[in-house]
Design brief:
This protein is of the alpha+beta class. It folds into three domains: 148 residues, D-Maltodextrin-Binding Protein, domain 2 (3-Layer(aba) Sandwich), CATH 3.40.190.10; 105 residues, Dipeptide-binding Protein, Domain 1 (Dipeptide-binding Protein, domain 1, Alpha-Beta Complex); 210 residues, Dipeptide-binding Protein, Domain 3 (Dipeptide-binding Protein, domain 3, Roll). 27% of the residues lie in helices and 22% in strands. The protein is built from 14 helices and 22 strands. Helix 7 packs antiparallel against helix 9 and helix 13 packs antiparallel against helix 14. The chain is globular. The protein starts with a helix and ends with a strand. 48% of the residues are buried.
Length: 509
């Protein structure tokens, strides 16, 4: 393993010394026949209805198709989208949005207050009580005012509410779309064209977009599920861009053709444990695994030391909500791990399986390192590689697994989005974590209007997750994106999205 790390380090050194930084060159931003092919690691076998989308990979690319009343820019600022502005009542219970004039759906129809009311009632599921995001259960009524604005009334104040409305799960869609599950109609800079199973998803620029028009006319998202062929496809020209490359893939790139951009994935990578599975139902076993995993070695192997070690379900980008001290709760200590296993009745170890989606090489690599490390405490981890759709249906939705390595993102720029899934009754609590004290702390955070107090409660939640070793937390992964030098303009966002609209063709001069 050390030899492989050394080789990766040498290759990366060569790569970095040969990489040419992106310059401030001008671009062909008016090319009406331009196109780009972007590789993505998984097929889109998800609902096209934004209110029912599950997979982060689906939301990542449909960020270009759908918009909410507000949206986030690349710096994390909330800006008006379908709405032109909002007034918030003094008690924090009523948000009144004015409808932006001239915003069109991709079918050519203007967005109306009725469309907004329909969309909010739909994603809040006011009648059924099972909203797409738990926080939307706080919406108790939606009304169209006499002057044509839309008033959303809450049961209790929520300082995160406007941010939650900027997510794809809160997208505004046409009230007359009879089949949003199969017919994607939004207001974004790109309109959905088609998808071919296991092959691609196609989009086209929406020329009637209300904001700054996209520069590239046609975008093809090509399914590249085989991680071993990514560099070959880039070098061969079958794809022009790919995000979340491994250092090994980067080392194979033809640097005469590509720039490599570096950002952060803004997700929580962990060995996620099914807390209902024995022996992971025993906190001592979970804690033992935390001590047994050398996270620095994981970073060295997976991303040549880049990345940020974390100790709970929160990322450093969230500043005031992030508790850095929790990353030090479980220092690498093989003897401590053995003692805890013996105390729990597993002195001779045990065997379990780690289910990993095969199309995410960073997670596969992480699982392999963890499996090797756990041998030192007599624990055998058997890696089971599955395709993405199987992982999504069986592991995530059906919770039919023992452990998995994956990265969990926050589709909204809120601490809430990272923490609400661990409430005992949350529908997306795929690790089956249960702690009544955690539930109380989270409820307190959601109920307070005092931001300082909210920070205290959220950090309390993070501490429970760390002390309970709900999962073996690893890192916030670095993100390496290869972009053909024919293109420029790509920007990273502080959340898991891919904004294609800013990419343009570089002048040949």
């Amino acid at each position: 393993m050390k030899k492989r790390r050394l080789l990766a380090s040498l290759l990366l050194m060569i790569l970095l010394t040969s990489t040419v930084a992106l310059s401030g060159c001008s671009g062909d931003k008016e090319n009406s026949s331009s196109s780009i092919t972007i590789g993505i690691p998984q097929d889109i076998e998800d609902s096209l209805d934004p209110h029912d989308m599950l997979a982060a990979g689906t939301k990542e690319i449909f960020f270009n198709v759908y918009e909410g009343l507000y949206k986030a820019d690349s710096e994390g600022n909330l800006v008006p989208a379908v709405a032109s502005g909002v007034e918030i009542s003094e008690d924090g219970l009523t948000y009144t949005f004015t409808v932006k004039e001239g915003v069109k759906f991709h079918n050519g129809n203007l967005v109306t207050a009725e469309d907004i009311k329909y969309s909010v009632e739909k994603f809040a599921d006011i009648e059924g009580g099972a909203p797409s995001i738990a926080a939307f259960s706080n919406i108790k009524a939606v009304e169209i005012t006499e002057d044509g604005a839309v008033a959303i009334k809450l049961a209790q104040p929520d300082s995160d509410f406007l941010t939650m409305l900027s997510t794809i799960e809160a997208a505004i869609i046409p009230a007359d779309n009879a089949d949003p599950d199969a017919n994607a109609i939004g207001t974004g800079p790109y309109k959905y064209v088609s998808r071919s199973p296991l092959t691609n998803v196609k989009m086209e620029r929406f020329d009637d977009y209300w904001g700054e028009k996209a520069h590239i006319e046609k975008v093809t998202f090509k399914i590249c599920a085989n991680a071993d062929t990514i560099a070959m496809e880039l070098n061969g020209g079958s794809i022009d861009m790919f995000s979340r490359l491994t250092t090994a893939q980067m080392a194979e790139l033809d640097m005469e053709k590509y720039n490599v951009l570096e950002g952060n994935m803004n997700l929580v990578q962990a060995l996620y444990l099914n807390n209902d599975f024995e022996p992971f139902s025993d906190v001592r076993v979970r804690q033992a695994l935390c001590y047994a995993v050398n996270r620095e070695e994981v970073l060295d192997f997976v991303s040549d030391g880049k990345g940020t070690i974390i100790g709970t379900s929160m990322i450093p980008a969230f500043g005031k909500y992030y508790d850095e001290s929790l990353s030090e709760m479980y220092p690498y200590d093989v003897q401590k791990a053995k003692d805890l296993l013996a105390e729990a009745g597993y002195a001779d170890g045990f065997t379990f399986s780690i289910t990993v989606p095969s199309n995410y090489q960073q997670h596969v690599d992480t699982a392999q390192v963890i499996a090797e490390q756990l041998k030192d405490v007599n624990v055998t981890a058997e890696i089971q590689l599955v395709d993405w759709n199987t992982w999504l249906s069986e592991t995530y939705s059906n919770r039919n697994y023992e452990a998995t390595v994956i990265g969990v993102d926050a589709p909204q720029l809120t601490a809430t989005a990272f923490l609400d899934r661990f409430v005992s009754t949350a529908g997306d609590n795929f690790v089956n974590y249960k702690n009544a004290d955690y539930d109380v702390a989270f409820a307190n955070a959601m109920a307070t209007t005092d931001e300082a107090q909210k920070v205290v409660y959220f950090k309390e939640c993070e501490t429970y997750l760390a002390k309970d070793a709900a999962n073996v937390y690893i890192q916030d992964l670095p993100e390496f994106t290869a972009l053909n030098k024919k293109y420029a303009g790509y920007e990273f966002y502080p959340m898991y999205v891919m904004d294609v609209s800013k990419i343009y063709i570089v002048d040949a001069e």
